[in-house]
UniProtKB/TrEMBL annotation:
The lineage of its organism: Bacteria, Bacillati, Actinomycetota, Actinomycetes, Micrococcales. Pfam families: 3-dmu-9_3-mt. This is VOC family protein. Gene3D superfamilies: 2,3-Dihydroxybiphenyl 1,2-Dioxygenase, domain 1. It comes from Curtobacterium citreum. Residues 6-131 form the PhnB-like domain.
Length: 138
């Protein structure tokens, strides 16, 4: 038996573009299903929106996302940050570099006071990412 916590990003629209971008960063297998394909689009404008997208990236990363159909409210009050951490300097630096494309850098990926390498950014889809490389010599 196992339990897994999976980040699930919600968008008004644009989930496909975001998932394609994250796929370019994390690689792996991307699957996308639309409201139209599932027969769940009440509004023709929703047919091509993402009902469920899932990226099974390298190193066991899993990220999911969807668009909101017409009439569904999306919260604007809450925020979420996603954290990538570990000791694989090469992989985590590569992820940072990919996510940084078009991002606002909050804290550059540099040596932190606690001894690790740390950086924080908000990507072009307004998702905030924290990257911590344990024991890194970067």
């Amino acid at each position: 038996m196992s339990v897994r916590l999976n980040p699930y990003l919600g968008f008004r629209s644009g989930a496909r573009e975001a998932l394609d971008f994250y796929h370019s960063v994390f690689h792996g297998q991307l699957t996308i299903g639309t409201f139209g394909e599932a027969g769940m689009s009440q509004d023709p404008a929703d047919a091509d929106k993402v009902m469920h997208g899932q990226l099974e990236g390298e190193n066991g990363l899993l990220l999911m996302a969807s668009d909101a159909p017409t009439g569904m409210e999306t919260p604007s009050e809450s925020t979420i940050s996603l954290s990538l951490s570990g000791d694989d300097d090469e992989a985590l630096t590569r992820y940072w570099n990919g996510l940084a494309d078009g991002a606002t850098i909050i804290e550059p990926l540099t040596k932190a006071p606690w001894g690790d390498t740390f950086g924080m950014l908000t990507d072009r889809f307004r998702v905030t990412w924290l990257v911590n490389i344990s024991g890194s010599t970067s």
